[in-house]
Every structure is written in structure tokens, then in C-alpha cells.
Amino acid sequence: MSYDNIETALIHGGISTDERTGAVNVPIYQTSTYKQDGLGKMRGYEYSRTGNPTREALEALIAQLEGGVAGFAFGSGMAATTAVLSLFNAGDRILISNNVYGGTFRVLDKVFNHFGITYSISDTENPEVFKTQITPDVKAVFLESPANPLMTVTDIRAVAEIAHEKGLLVIVDNTFMTPYLQRPIELGADIVVHSATKYLGGHSDVVAGLAVATTDDLAKKLAFIQNSTGGVLPPFDSFLLIRGIKTLGVRLDRHVENAEKAARFLADYPAVKQVYYPGLPTDKGYEINRRQAKNGGAMISFELRENYDIKRFFKSLKLVTLAESLGGVESLVCHPSTMTHASIPEEIRKKVGITDGLIRLSVGIENIDDILADLKQAIDAAEVK
Ligand SMILES: *Cc1c(COP(=O)(O)O)cnc(C)c1O
């Protein structure tokens, strides 16, 4: 069923009930294969790499939430991105936004280059500059907004207009926002990808990826790639994601409420040199983000002043956990230059502003006073006197 209000669609969208039994949750069809009633007589399923009812329910749900024609579920965000990049041919070039998930950079730099697919780092934040970077071999732009880890905002509509004039596909990694906060397809994206490991799953208990196509032609090609390369999401993990997505709205409301308070606290705290959060009116991406998204999300990056030792900061945290990943109910913190973005060479990191002092915070849904108290005591403990 389709619903106009996303809070309802999160819970009832896609295929949300079981026709046969009326079960209010989609059953976990833990099967690899399906009985055929005669040669060539299938009941809609033949083999679970090709199709599985639990995975299909998730795929229908994400397609509906993002406003596309078809969804595809994969074993990780990187498997989803890899399937999407497999649409291209040797000789094609992809422009990627200059702040992009480290793994996206790595798969292009170290894997797709073997197949003759190249990339250039593009200043998508600046549509006029982006326009000049479109050489005849460029076939797509792949962007994140807000982008990881400096939360830089790209005007998705402006970039999509320029890209479409030049015949490029627009691919948006919507992991940081989710369709609850931002719907890239309405802004002109042709394909949306997700690391569903993050907010969509929401509990740091499943690794998964999703892709959504906006045309039947792209959907057909992605279905072919998904079945041919085989990185599909298992039935149990598909069930966990459907379950996670049901509470996305209430979780994100609290994540964002806490993040806005945490960003204000950090911006006002004398030990903090710089805060990157598009939900702060003083942030350079604030205006554009406000036009295209519901709010600034719940990811914040910040830098401490020079007389603070960040190793000591990380070691002093008691509640906020030092870990890769983001988007779970618990607050997590990471050090992009040695963790999530370590696969990006140092000179490129420096060029785009990922300094060794940068700290990335995924604000959880714990009591905000507890989160702020922990940040405060860890920052204070990090001061070099
Ligand atoms: C984590 C992440 C990915 C990769 O997803 P996995 O599920 O870890 O493979 C891609 N893009 C963004 C923005 C991410 O945060």
C-alpha cells in the first residue's frame, strides 16, 4: 500500500502483511529454493538469490519511501554501491563529491579502476565548478549531502539539473539523511543508495545496503546485476531492517533533537575550535540544506583547539563509544583520518579538510544531559596544561 505521510508509510508501506496467514509482520522466508509445480511452472519464485519474499517486502518498502520504481537489497552498503557502479563501462568516468565515504572512494580507486572505470573528485558543493568538471567521458555524478565527514552540503537540485543537461546519471548516497529527512529523487536523483547499516537498521545489529531506481530501464539493469553478482541481503537481515525502519521516524526525531542540542553545546564550548553541522544557522550549508531536507540530521563533526589532546579525549569518554559506524541508538564517536577515511590518501584528505584533529559524532537517543556531560568531561580531561 502507498501512504502520503511518511510516518505511516514507514510502518505500513511496501508489502507489510502476509496474505496467507494475516501475520502483521512479514515472515522470514528462510529458504534457498522453491518447489516448481511442473517444468517451467514457478509460483513467482525460483531461487532466493533471484527473489525472496522477505527481501522483496523490504525492497518494495524502500522503493516506496524514496519514491522510486524499484528497490534492491544487498549484503552491505558497499555491495549496493558496487552494484550501482557496475552499470558503467570501461572508459566511463564518475565524478564523486569531495567528501565521500572512504569505502566509496576505495572501491573506485582500487577495484573499478581494474575494469577501466575512472573517477575524479568534484566540487559538487559548488555547482558552477562542478559544471566545468564534466568532460565527455563523465557518465555520472555520485554524491552525499551532507557529505561524510565534514557535513558539506550539495545543492542536489542544482547539480541534478546541470548533470541531466549533460546526460549524466545522478546517484545520491542518502545514508546520513534517510527518506525521513531528505528525498533525493524529488530533487532530481536517478538512483539512491543507502548503507542501511546506519539509521535505517538503527540498532547497530545488521550490515545491509539498499539501492532505489527511478526508471524501469535502470530497475531492469540493477535487477540483472543483483542476480548476476549475487550480493543479496539474507531473509533474516531483511526482516531486521523492516523492523528497524518501522521506528525510523521516532528515532530520528530524538536523534535530531539531541544533535541540535549537542551542536549548540559544542559551538559554545571554548575548547572547541570548529563545529560542522548543517543544522546550525551559522553553518555554511544551513540554507541549502534547509531547502532540501527536513533538518540537519544527527551527525556532527568538530575539532578541538590545539592545546587539547584528542587521544586523551577518546580515552576519557565513558558513555559515548569509540567505534566505526553511525546511526544506531547509541552515541558513537570516531576519528575519520585513521578510521572511516583512512583509505583516502593523506594528501587528498588534507586537501578536502579531513584533518587529524577531526572528530565525528553520531548523536544517539540517550538522555541528552548524559551525552553532554560525557562530552564535557572528556574534553576537559583532554586539555594539555
Ligand atoms: C557506512 C557507509 C557506507 C558503506 O556501507 P556499509 O554498510 O558499511 O557497507 C556508505 N556510505 C556511507 C555514507 C556510509 O556511512
Would you kindly provide a written description of the structure presented here, covering whatever features stand out?
The longest helix has 21 residues, at about 250-270. Strands 1-7-6-5-4-2-3 form a seven-stranded mixed beta sheet. It has helices spanning about 5-10, 55-65, 75-85, 100-110, 125-130, 155-165, 180, 215-230, 235-245, 250-270, 285-290, 310-315, 345-350, 370-380, and strands spanning about 70-75, 95, 120, 140-145, 170-175, 190-195, 210-215, 270-275, 300-305, 320, 330-335, 360. It folds into two domains: about 5-245, Aspartate Aminotransferase, domain 2 (3-Layer(aba) Sandwich); about 250-380, Aspartate Aminotransferase, domain 1 (Alpha-Beta Complex). With about 375 residues, it is of the alpha/beta class. Helices cover about 35% and strands about 15% of the residues. The protein has 14 helices and twelve strands. α2 runs parallel beside α9 (about 235-245) and α12 (about 310-315) packs across α14 (about 370-380). Pyridoxal-5'-phosphate binds near residues 76, 175, 197, 207 and 209.
For the biggest sheet, the summary is: 7 strands, mixed
CATH topology of the largest domain: Aspartate Aminotransferase, domain 2
**Helix share of residues?**
25-40%
Series of secondary-structure elements, N-terminal to C-terminal: HHEHEHEHEHEHEEHHHEHEHEEHEH
Strand content: 15-25%
The distinct bound ligands, ions and cofactors come out as: pyridoxal-5'-phosphate
Seen as an oligomer or otherwise, the chain set is single chain
**Secondary-structure-derived class:** alpha/beta
Overall pLDDT score: 96
CATH level-two architecture of the largest domain: 3-Layer(aba) Sandwich
Distance between the terminal alpha carbons, to the nearest Å? 61 Å
Cα gyration radius (Å): 21 Å
The number of helical runs is: 14
CATH homologous superfamily placement of the largest domain: Type I PLP-dependent aspartate aminotransferase-like (Major domain)
Strand order of the largest sheet: 1-7-6-5-4-2-3
| Total individual domains | 2
CATH class call of the largest domain: Alpha Beta
Q: Give start-end ranges of low-pLDDT stretches.
A: none
